[in-house]
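It is worth pausing here to work through a concrete case rather than discussing structure prediction in the abstract. The textbook approach is simple: state the sequence, then state the predicted structure, then interpret. We follow exactly that order.
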Amino acid sequence: MASMAKYVNDFKMSRMDLLIKMKEKAEWVWKETLFLHGLAPETRLASSLSDVEILTVLFYSGLMHYNPKLPFSDKRDRLIISKGHGSISMYPILADVGFFGLDELAKISQSDSLLGVIPDTLIPGYETINGSLGHGLGVACGMALALKRKGIDRRVFVLCGDGELNSGAMWEAIMLASFHCLDNLFVIVDNNKMSMLGYQKDILGLEPLEEKFSAFKWNSDVINGHNIEKIYETLNGLLNQRNGRPSVIIADTIKARGILQWENDELCHIRSLKAEEVKRLLKEKK
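Step two, the predicted structure:
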């Protein structure tokens, strides 16, 4: 499949056509993510299905600047994947837009493959290894601050999970970002309301999450994280609102979206599908 970034930049696709194409891409990414799980059942499928539309908009909308042939170009925007284990859905996207070949997908978790069951910076398109969950935003703050100090007009995007917000390190980074007026920092919270072993509300309730970010002087929006149009419009609006504040999109999502028996299963994070279940689900999606 051809890179949507190429469509956007070379052919000046209309807004409506762009939204239609992104929806098609999201459906393809969902299927490819399921296929990869069939090859490597150790992958965290439930976490990777809640952020499909978020990653689709980041890579195919033309809003985030990147060059798959020069992954560390000074002209790129930075993308920090803080919920690394839950970003297997980014593998097919990276292959599709040209960071590596599509044939690499079928080799996932093999000894000669770039693609492990947990991402690594060996994979072109991944910027960092952030250590344990909760550290990605701090890394992103350092990047955003350095870019501002150097006068480089590039943005830093972060994808994190809501479970990471249980960590004090995240709130230290949230305070630091507003104190240093990092309006080149854009965070998307995959707010699927489940952590590894249960519902967030039963572990460490975060609500009202939008008010918490607002209290720390962040631009904050709550949206449907599976609505391609809403993600695109909200992100585009925030990118054009450089008011000295960092920005966050709280994207309400469904963990394991599309696998009905898992969507209300608080332990879906650690579950795997059998090969015949993967085949059945892919057949149903045709």
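Step three, interpretation. The mean pLDDT is 92. The radius of gyration is 18 Å.
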